[in-house]
Amino acid sequence: MAAIYSHLSSLRSSDAPSFSSLSSSGIQSSRSSGVFVPSPVTFPAIRRRISCQTTSPSSSANGNANATQKDFLHISDFNKLTILNILDRAKEVKALIKSGDRTYLPFKGKTMAMIFAKPSMRTRVSFESGFYLLGGHAIYLGPNDIQMGKREETRDIARVLSRYNDIIMARVFAHQDILDLAKYATVPVINGLTDYNHPCQIMADALTIIEHVGQLEGIKVVYIGDGNNIVHSWLLLASVIPFHFVCACPKGFEPDEETAKRAQQAGVSKIEITNDPKEAVRGADVVYSDVWASMGQKEEAAQRRQVFQGFQLLTGERRNHEISWTERLCHALFACRKGSGSH
């Protein structure tokens, strides 16, 4: 993923809007991670260091934490230039690895602790394989290995893992858990997913769009489905990179109101929240979807199947006529296909 293709260094610049203070209360649950990855572009990889500017509660709220704490918690913690640099760097490293070159090892001798309070095959494989290919060693810590807030307090977990590892990646339920990890850890913390947002997923999807469409700025991206953590990260990206983002979801399943409001107030992108999927997809460059019922929502699956009937991406003879044949379809690939929407 793009997050581990760069060295996170220095603090976020003052012109980047920050959403670090957002709480996890009232936030909807998330999904299993993953996307279809296209064939790599072929161009020379330039080996340079990217300076990623970010901020988190760690540097200001915890007197014992390193003042140069470098975390990847929300896309909007970064400015436009940094986001585009990360994506450019990810494209270069991806092409280098696909070429068979195994000499670029920026994480040689480094270890990354991966906390999986919420299991995911694709997130584990992508992080573990990516870190290994860049010279590092990843340590998997599943739900039975770490019970955050139960067996040990989050702050103690953060402190202990910081002493043994160079990076911490965490895929958790409550967003407050990732904030607490960053607050008390003395090494970089990467948000692998929370109930509130999913920044690495959207960075990977942004890279996919750039590879297929040629650019991210100025295009129209339409999301159809539940206004969940995927949408929150798209909104945060739209508060930094200018493009037209539309979220079409059933009434009662809109994204977090405060997140949408702050993204719109950033004045960077045209952002729309609508309940009309047919109108939403008109003129779209990319149409994006996700599962209707995510991990932790299976008891709602039957009810959601009824509510989301008009929010499907169809192919073949059943394809939505409102979607042109020139646009691209993206999907957060799911493990359980039945009842999750047609494609």
Describe, in plain words, how this protein is organized in 3D:
This protein is an alpha/beta fold. Helices cover 30% and strands 15% of the residues. The protein has 10 helices and 11 strands. The chain has helices spanning 57-61, 80-98, 121-133, 154-164, 175-184, 199-213, 229-238, 257-265, 277-280, 301-307, and strands at residues 8-11, 52-54, 111-116, 137-141, 167-171, 189-193, 220-224, 244-248, 270-274, 286-289, 328-331. It has a 5-stranded parallel beta sheet with strand order 9-8-7-10-11, covered by helices on one side. Strands 4-3-5-6 form a 4-stranded parallel beta sheet, sandwiched between helices. A two-stranded parallel ribbon has the order 1-2. Helix 8 (257-265) links the parallel strand 8 (244-248) and strand 9. Helix 2 packs across helix 6 (199-213), helix 4 crosses helix 5 and helix 7 runs parallel beside helix 8. The longest helix is centred in the first third of the chain and has 19 residues, at 80-98. It is globular and about 50 Å long. Mean pLDDT is 79; it is low at 6-17, 20-69, 320-327 and 332-343. This is Ornithine transcarbamylase, chloroplastic-like isoform X2. It comes from Nicotiana tabacum (Common tobacco).
